[in-house]
Structure formats: structure tokens, C-alpha cells
Design brief:
Blueprint (H helix, E strand, L loop, with lengths): L1 H10 L16 E10 L5 E9 L4 E8 L6 E3 L9 E3 L5 E5 L2 E7 L1 E8 L9 E11 L3 E11 L8 H8 L5 H4 L3 E8 L3 E9 L8 E5 L5 E3 L3 E5 L2 E10 L13 E5 L4 E5 L2 E2 L1
Parallel strand pairs: 11-19
Antiparallel strand pairs: 1-2, 2-8, 3-7, 4-9, 5-8, 6-7, 9-10, 11-12, 12-16, 13-17, 14-16, 15-16, 17-18
Amino acid sequence: MFKMTSTALALCAAFSTSAFAGGMDDLVQLDVLDGGVTKRGTYMGAIRLTLSEGWKTYWRAPGDAGIPPEIDWSKSQNVGEVSITWPAPHVFDQNGLRSIGYKNQLVLPVEITPKRSGEPVRLRGEVAFGVCKDVCVPGNLDFDHRLDATAARNPAIAAAMAQRPYSKREAGVKSATCRLSPTADGLKIEARIAMPSAGGPEVLVFEPGNPQLWASEAQTRRQGNTLIATSELVNNSGGTFALDRSEMRITVLGSKHAVDILGCTPS
């Protein structure tokens, strides 16, 4: 974990606003998009980050170098549950490090369940994120937007929703198992996923479901219709831990599509 952190910091040594002569407004534009009200009575919207040409931002699991977007909704009004749909990201290789994210634009669909049905919903808060090109810059941008209940279907939101990873059923996943074994620093995890290829060299990402746990970059290989991936899980605090396999989220990123798998069974 410390090696990963120091490497990422070395790559992003310019992770300060002084690394870029202009301000954040010259790099990123933030918009809140309206998508109207669903038949369930929820509001559809999206956070859109439009980046300057050639810049990229990051996915929720950004890889070896990068920081994931974090959204603070605490100042919002009449907002209950918030459900975020992450479009399938791209894999970038830079200076020997792998990062995962989006280039030029990120549209992040959100579905809002209001606390009080029929009353207006106001989204107000802040997005913290990182952007990189030749240098890396951290950013914070505020948003304040009252969602329009009469808005029509938004093509940008629809396009982002269409880019979501496939479900297990859609991807033809037959089974997903995880084998655990102890290491000097934590646990080694080996996943075996019975599924057709997602296309090209497949990248697999482990997300343990516990913010205190970190997963190293997975090594993947195929045996026919079985994708095999190994990674090491480490506790950020350095202590021992137990892993709940049902909370393990596995994402397979391929050239044809991505696949989202929640939970794996013992093998």
C-alpha cells in the first residue's frame, strides 16, 4: 500500500494548483443535467465534467495513479437515496502505471429519491476530483441546481446509462469464485470467472467493499471460457482483517464491453 501511494504521489508530484498556470475553471466545466421524473417518482439527473482537450479524470477505482471523484451532497434539499451509475471507464497506461478513467468528458447519471414526494429537489454540494495530462491537478467545484420535474429525457444521460457495464446475466457469467490465502501483508485473492471474453486484453478490478482495504493491480489470464485473476488485499491500517466475499465487487474491462459482478463464492 505504501509503495503504491508513494509511486502515485511521485507521478503526480504536481498535484497542486500551482502546477497549472491557469485556474480549475480553465480545465473543467461542471454542469448538472436534468432528466425529468421517472415512473417511480424518482428524479434523473447527472453530474457532467467537461474537460479541456487531452485531459482525463478518474473512475471510482482509479488504479495506481489518480483520485476518484467524490461528491458531497450534504447541502442538498429534499434528497433521500442517491443512486449513481458509472459508465464503463477506459484503461490508460502512463509511465508504467495503469490508471482507469475518462478522457475529455464524464457524464455521471444519478437517480434521486426525494425525501418528500412531490416537493422540489435541489442538488447543492461539491465534487472533488483529479485531472491529469502532462501534470496532475486536484480540483473542487461547487454545484447548485434545482432539478426540473418537467424536463424531457436527456440524450446525454441516456448515452451514459447505455455505457454502463453489463450485468452477470447480460455478459453470460456462469459462476464467479474467489480463493483466499494469507500473505505477509494481507490476503491473496484468486478469482475464477466463467464467462465469454469481454474482448481484447481484459483488465479486472477488485473492489473489496470495505474502504479500509486496498487491492493491488490484478494479474489476469484466460483458460478457455474462464478468466483467472489474482491480487493482494491489504488493510490500510496494517492490521488483520476478514473479507466478506458477498461484498467483493469485480469489474471486467474489455474492448467490447465491461462486466459488473457483485459477490463471489468460495472455491
